[in-house]
Amino acid sequence: MADEISQDRDLWLKTLVEKELGISTEETASPVKDAMVMGLAFITGAAIPLVPHFFLTGDTAIGVSVGGTLAGLFALGLLKGRLVERSPLLQGLEILGIGTISAGVGYALGELIPRLFT
């Protein structure tokens, strides 16, 4: 079967992209629907760290915000692990690590850049 697929270059590339990367080459049915789903996902993800600040103040709000965000990142990684059929725990830790490093770099740049211009 592999020999037959590799004879047709387009079919071979399509199969590699689908099987190795998990990316479908099929056109989506509705770009507007896809955009709405992506927008809703961004709003939901952004709400997790913001909601505690509506109900709490000071260090408590920051602690709940950070904790909720870390828990959300880990849960997202668990879901990713189930979807791609890999270890949910490792995928959860991977997403948690990437998010934590990204937040640390963002915080460090936010502290450093204003100091360069004052």
- What would you call the structural class? mainly alpha
Mean of all residue-level pLDDT scores: 89
How many distinct helices?
A: 6
* Spans of at least 5 consecutive residues with low confidence: none
In percent, how helical is the residue content? over 70%
Can you summarize the main beta sheet? none
Distance between the termini: 65 Å
The radius of gyration is: 20 Å
Strand percentage lies at under 5%
Total count of strands: 0
Q: How do the SSEs run, as a string of H and E?
A: HHHHHH
Oligomer category:
single chain
- What would you call the shape? elongated
Layout of SSEs?
Blueprint: H1 2-7, H2 9-21, H3 31-50, H4 52-55, H5 58-83, H6 88-116
List keywords for this structure.
mainly alpha; 118 residues; 83% helix
